Amino acid sequence: MKTLIQKLAAAAFGLLVMAAPAGADGLIMARMNQPFPEAMALLQSAISARGYTITRLQQVNENLARREYKSDMYRVVYFGKFDEVRRVTAAHPELIPFLPLNITIFAEGDQALLVSSHPRTLEDFFPDPALKPIFDHWEADIDAIMDELREGDGSGS
């Protein structure tokens, strides 16, 4: 019998492998005509304004530097609502590898790009009807965050 960890690892690996051919279809993206520091501040504000707590800001510079990519402007912002994550993972521990939600932000010249996995992708792997409203809620919130950032910077992209 597989352990819970083995099941979770298999689910995470399966999602990554199966989502790969989808390309941009499985992503929510935004481009901002703002330098990275300002875009990062606006992202954190937009996340907090929707009642989420930022749980971690992960720098990925070391791994990028090992691959000769020079940038200190690349972060993954993890966020969630504690009670919501606790409820969802209590009922569906297989979702633990996918939480908290996250948005990656990185500099591209004088602009910032933001990318997040589309919560709808999780629906394909976790078809429990009880999860659909949660995935829909996460999708609406991430879309609203990205829309606010697109609109707030004047680029309209």
From TrEMBL:
What residue range is the signal peptide? 1-24
Can the keyword Glycoprotein be found in this entry's annotation? no
Q: Which UniProt keywords apply?
A: Signal
Q: Which Gene3D superfamilies match?
A: TT1751-like domain (3.30.310.70)
The keyword Hydrolase is assigned to this record: no
Record-linked InterPro entries: DUF302, TT1751-like_sf
Q: What is this protein called?
A: DUF302 domain-containing protein
